[in-house]
Amino acid sequence: MLSLRPYQETAADFLYEHDRAMILAPVGAGKTAITLTAMWEMIRDGHVKRWLVLAPKRVCTDVWPVERPKWAPNLTMSICIGTTRQRLAAYAANTHVMVINYDNLQWLAELNMNFDGVVFDELTRLKNPSGTRFKAFLKVVDPMTTRWGLTGSFTSNGLEDVFGQCKIVDQSLLGRSKGAFMQQYFVLINKDFGEWSPRVGSLEKVMNVIKPATFVLEAGEYKDKLPPLHTVEVKCDMDLTPYNKMKKDFVLDGITAVNAAVVTGKLQQLASGFVYDTITTPSHVPGKFTSTQRPIWYGLHKFERLEELLDENQHANTIIVYNYQEELAELTRRFGRLQTLDSPNAIERWNKGGIQLLAVHPKSAGHGLNLQHGGCHMVFLSLPWSLELYEQTIGRLHRSGQKHAVWCYVMLTNKTIDERIWAALHDKRAISDIAMEELK
Question: Tens of pLDDT along 123-147?
């Protein structure tokens, strides 16, 4: 059994002492280890009889059952993943902890649950109080008197995200009504489109309200335990003729973007060298249509620069982050040794140094996975708009246990939307940093 570091012990004590609490800690700080320790102490001392853990699917299978023997070997655990029969077996098992993914929340809410404690791993998955999952679980959460939320940032996409996360943990923090919350802390700036803007000082006020229920693990408390993180912009050039035509006319070679939101996605695709042409055909069911996407390529600049970068780094083990399936397809065509997280035992093989190139999508590798033992290089072929996904993906390498400096390369096509996305991520980080400062 491993021992927590002093700053982790303090966080575990905070959880033990608070029935409703949130841990706000950057990636790699050991939130799972902290929580497992506190969960066992609550079971041991009779404060909780059975825990429910909600987490992203891959975290359910590859993190919680792996970390449990290290930090809480006396805790018994079942993983509620798979077919209905497998999930029912895990639910019926007489274990201290049952771990289930967020996608099965509605199914779980229909059962006669017997949990009195719940942990929300990656609490931001419940930031939308109007969502179907949120509403289904809110109806059955009352018997779970102990509720802990784990997150890297409440405000990764803005202050509005905070309400839902706090409501599911403790409604007394920001109230029951999203409308009342918005009226108090925001100003309606566009009634037609429902656009709200935070009032002056709202971020500081909200953080002050939730501060008593929130433990903030400051980066300085553990940063000296981590090797440095180096972020390098890798600039690329492309023929901007097709890009500028789509940007100006919303049309390119018969491909039409119906609105500004669609054209934004098309421009990001073009910055990577291709664009999807969506073809709709009638199906055998009357009134139904089948849509297929056909990629049309205009340039391979990012992939050629990627090959140069891998050569420059002496083909060190590298994680390549993609956002589009066609990017993955081109990577597969170019690199026969490429593996994905769906490859057999990919995480184990990567951490043993057995995979030279690992392709990951931010949504599947963005939370909880431990990949720090297999390498220290990461390349973003294209960027997510979400600051949370960006930081969490980097955190797969730059986390406790990493022994080398981490190098993160961000590929940007000059004079394209890549630069705008990169700037937007920096702006969101500024908001997140202010929130962290107010919670200290």
Answer: 988 999 999 999 999 999 999 999 9
Answer for the pair 269, 276: CB distance below 8 angstroms, yes or no: yes
Q: How far is CA 427 from CA 31, 76, 261, 385, 421, in A?
A: 26, 43, 20, 11, 10
CA distances in angstroms from 183 to 146, 167, 177, 196, 204, listed in the order given: 29, 16, 10, 9, 16
Q: What is the rounded distance in angstroms from the CA atom of residue 385 to the CA atom of residue 408?
A: 17
Mean pLDDT of the chain: 90
Nearest-10 Cα torsion for 113, 34, 134, 77: -30
**351 contacts: CB under 8 Å, gap ≥ 6:** 370, 371, 372, 373, 374
CATH architecture of 226-434: 3-Layer(aba) Sandwich (3.40)
pLDDT of residue 257: 82
pLDDT tens across 29-74, in order? 788 999 999 999 999 999 999 999 999 888 899 889 999 999 999 9
pLDDT at residue 224 greater than cutoff 60: no
Instruction: Find out whether 367 and 329 touch, Cβ atoms under 8 Å.
Output: no
Cα–Cα distances (Å) from 141 to 110, 114, 119, 135, 220, in that order, read: 12, 11, 11, 10, 35
Per the structure block, which two tokens stand in for 162? 């905070």
Distance of alpha carbon 392 from the chain centroid:
6
Weakest-pLDDT range from 275-279, 284-288, 390-394: 284-288
Return the structure tokens found at 141. 């959460």
Domain range annotation of the chain: 6-224, 226-434
What secondary structure letter does DSSP report for 296? E
Among 353, 355, 348, smallest CA distance to 374 is for 353
pLDDT score of 222: 57
pTM of the complete model: 0.70
**Residue 78: strand pairing partners:** 98
Partners of 80 in the beta sheet?
100
At 219, the pLDDT band (50, 70, 90 cuts) reads low
Asked if the domains at 6-224 and 226-434 fall in one CATH topology, the answer is yes
Quick one: fold of 6-224?
Rossmann fold (3.40.50)
CA 83 to chain centre: 25
H-helix segments, 250-324: 260-271, 301-312
